[in-house]
Design a protein that fits this description.
The structure is a single chain. This protein folds into two domains: 321 residues, Beta-Lactamase, CATH 3.30.450; 166 residues, Reverse transcriptase/Diguanylate cyclase domain (Alpha-Beta Plaits, 2-Layer Sandwich), CATH 3.30.70. It is elongated, with a radius of gyration of 48 Å. It is an alpha+beta fold. 49% of the residues lie in helices and 20% in strands.
Length: 566
């Protein structure tokens, strides 16, 4: 009973002689073994890795977001500062009504505008409170475009008076561009000379673009990003990127209204309470550990050139997708490599070694025209393939129309015959056969009758090559060749005569022939004693010359031309 069960399991595992079944079952077994090992490695490494990944990526994303925004703002602030200290701008603000100075300042500010992210630049004169706009799409006769005079009591002009009363040289805010109806991140830079405020120059970065660029650094489904100012107001929230009200209109929310994690809110409040002016390059981010799930860590990163901060809250569950999982991946890879090596060894024995033997037998077949192909006696896929190849090779050696050997077989086999006969210095005779006036036959009876004629002539030619080593082949079109190893001139001429008779006896009517009432052929015969320096082309060329002599001499006959004496 045990032996029967063992045999059943063996048949189940190895299959009923099928190579694919054996290969599949062995690979499944090895894969399951590798999977078990990988699972153990992953479970052991998970707890350690998840903590390191969460904290590290929360820090990285916060720093990346802060750096991206500070780079944008730093460039804009630098350009505005250069304009604020420009002699041309200062002279115009000190003498606003001077058209020449205004034009000079306008050209100076156009140069600044070319380097800004925004396509608009605004300037307010402190003495008159007049606001001007400089934009590339405004034709203003070399002068800033006047917008309006600011009113201290108007809510829409409150931004100017708030900015000039702050101690910092420039301020940042998020508000609507009322001219273009676009929400912007505004940079308002004072123009001061010798302690006297001459005006304010400002520009705005498009809010939706800046927000999208900042938070495109990470997956918003697993990571949340905020930008807050020194008062704890949330200016940007990655969770609201699809909210049109947030992107297109004024929006303010405190951190207490936005965040539910009290630990994080307290940490942010402690951070902003100590802000005095703008952050410099020495301001470092710091990590806040939260509840384990779903958010485990948050990082607060100061943004240089501003008094804003980036807050990144990282979802621990996304850690499995991060590159810091590499140690586990490496361990898994080692196991998979071992699996691959074992699988390769089995694959070689079951598949590649038999295929290599099949390949070697096909190479020998190409070189020597042997008919033995490895694997035809096997009962698996290799055997099926070998038998199919053997059948294909047999079909490839025969002409599809006439059923006799084709030119490819003739050339390959003739080379083999020459090698064999050169060892014994034996004789070789070659006959070239051409159907007389075949074109006229085709024109008279059509191609279908023409094909029938060629098949009939081919069989007549083939019957003339009676010995086992002799063979006939279709050389091309209406031409045929007969190869006669170990046959001298007399034997070859006798076969040529027999061939002429066989064709004539077909009695196929050919009314347009100038030779006879029936289909006839012209034959060229050559014979030579084979030597190592000869090529098969010499025999074919000589036989072809003899055949053309038969045509010139009236057709329906053979002509002999000696290649070399017997």
């Amino acid at each position: 009973m045990k032996q029967m069960k063992g045999n059943s399991l063996r048949r189940l595992f190895w299959g009923e002689g099928r190579l694919s079944v054996r290969f599949r079952n062995i690979n499944i077994l090895l894969f399951l073994l590798a999977l078990c090992i990988m699972t153990l490695v992953m479970v052991a490494a998970f707890n350690n890795i998840i903590s390191r990944i969460s904290s590290d990526y929360a820090r990285r994303y916060a720093i990346s977001s802060a750096d991206a925004l500070s780079t944008h703002i730093g460039k804009e602030v630098g350009l505005l500062s250069a304009a604020a200290h420009s002699n041309a701008v200062i002279e115009w603000l000190a003498d606003e009504g001077n058209e020449e100075k205004k034009s000079h300042a306008y050209l100076e500010m156009l140069g600044v505008l070319d380097g800004l992210y925004s396509s608009n630049l605004y300037i307010v004169v402190a003495e008159s409170l007049n606001e001007y706009r400089i934009a590339g799409d405004i034709a203003a006769d070399n002068a800033p475009a006047f917008l309006n005079a600011l009113d201290a009591g108007a809510p829409e002009d409150r931004w100017y008076f708030d900015s000039i009363f702050l101690e910092s040289e420039y301020t940042l805010s998020v508000a609507m561009d009322l001219v273009n109806q676009v929400k912007r991140v505004w940079i308002d830079h004072k123009i001061i000379v010798d302690g006297t405020l001459l005006g304010l120059i400002c520009t705005g970065l498009e809010f939706s673009h800046i927000t999208g660029e900042l938070f495109s650094l990470f997956n918003p489904d697993t990571t949340r990003g905020l930008i807050i100012n020194a008062n704890g107001i949330v200016y940007m929230d990655s969770f609201l990127l699809g909210d049109e009200d947030f992107l297109q209109n004024d929006f303010e929310s405190s951190i207490e209204e936005t965040l539910s994690e009290s630990v994080l809110v307290d940490a942010i409040r402690g951070h902003i309470d100590g802000i005095d002016g703008h952050f410099d390059s020495g301001s470092d981010p710091f990590l806040v550990e939260l509840a384990p799930w779903p958010y485990r860590y948050a990082t607060i990163a100061p943004i240089r050139h501003t008094n804003w901060s980036a807050v990144i809250i990282y979802d621990s569950s996304s850690s499995l997708e991060m590159p810091l999982f590499i140690p586990t991946v490496i361990a898994m890879l080692i196991v998979l490599i071992a699996f691959a090596l074992a699988s390769s060894a089995v694959s070689y024995r079951l598949i590649f070694l038999p295929f290599d033997k099949l390949r070697q037998s096909l190479v020998r077949l190409k070189d020597s025209n042997e008919e033995n192909i490895y694997g035809t006696d096997r009962g698996d896929e290799i055997g099926e393939l070998s038998s199919t190849i053997k059948d294909w090779i047999r079909k490839a050696n025969y002409d599809a129309l006439t059923g006799i050997h084709n030119r490819r077989f003739m050339e390959n086999h003739l080379q083999h015959i020459l090698r064999l006969l050169s060892r014994s210095n034996g004789d070789l005779s070659v006959l070239m056969v051409d159907v007389d006036y075949f074109k006229k036959f085709n024109d008279t009876f059509g191609h279908e009758k023409g094909d029938y004629c060629l098949r009939s002539v081919a069989q007549a030619v083939n019957r003339s090559a009676a010995r086992s080593n002799d063979f006939a082949a279709r050389y091309g079109g209406e031409e045929f060749a007969v190869i006669l190893p170990n046959t001298c001139q007399d034997g070859a001429c006798s076969i040529a005569e027999k061939l002429l008779e066989n064709v004539y006896e077909l009695k196929m009517p050919h009314p347009d022939s100038d030779v006879a009432a029936f289909v006839t052929v012209s034959v060229g015969v050559t014979t030579g004693r084979v030597s190592y320096e000869q090529s098969w082309e010499e025999y074919m060329k000589r036989a072809d010359e003899a055949m053309y002599m038969s045509k010139q001499n009236g057709r329906n006959q053979y002509t002999f031309l000696e290649l070399r004496k017997c």
